[in-house]
Amino acid sequence: MDFFRRLEKIDGAVNRGYARWGKWLGAGLLLFILGWGGWVVWASIWGPPTGPVTLIIHSEIDRPILGFSVNGVAGPNAFAHGGGKTTCCGSISGKTAEVVWTLDITHEQYLKGMRLETRRIVIPLPERKWGENDLHVHFLPGDKVLLGWSDNAWSPYEKHPGKDNKLPAADI
C-alpha cells in the first residue's frame, strides 16, 4: 500500500503544478507551434531554394571521367568528350563547391603509361533560383570546371533552340 500512497502524492503534486502552471504550458506550446508554422510558411514562400538536385555531367576533355562529386553528392561518369548523364538526388548548398573527380583512361592511354588520377577544385557555387533543380557540371581542359543551374536538361552554357543563347555575365 505504500506504493499507492506515494503514487497519490505524486499525482497530487502534478495536479497542483498543472493547476498553477497549466495556462503557461499551454501558451508555450501554442507559441512553439505558431513559431514553427510561421517559419514553414516563410521558408516555402520567401526562403532560399532547397531540395533535391540532379547532377548532369558534360565533359570536354580527352579522358573518360570515372565519377565525380560536388560537395559530397556523387555524380555520374562520362566518356571522353561526352556527357549528358544524370544522377539524382542530393542536397547541394553553400557559397562554394568542392568538386572531386577521377580521370579514367582508355586502352591506348594505358599503353602510353597514363593511370587513374583524382583531381579536386574548390570554386564558387552559382546562385540558385527557385525552380532550378539541375546542376550542370562542365569539365574543360586544364582542370577547369564550370557549374551552372537550370530548370531543365539544357545547360546554361549550351546553345539550344528557343533561347537567346547568351552566357551568364560572370563567365564571358
UniProtKB/TrEMBL annotation:
<protein>
    <submittedName>
        <fullName>DUF3304 domain-containing protein</fullName>
    </submittedName>
</protein>
<dbReference type="Pfam" id="PF11745">
    <property type="entry name" value="DUF3304"/>
</dbReference>
<dbReference type="InterPro" id="IPR021733">
    <property type="entry name" value="DUF3304"/>
</dbReference>
<keyword id="KW-0472">Membrane</keyword>
<keyword id="KW-0812">Transmembrane</keyword>
<feature type="transmembrane region" description="Helical">
    <location>
        <begin position="21"/>
        <end position="42"/>
    </location>
</feature>
<keyword id="KW-1133">Transmembrane helix</keyword>
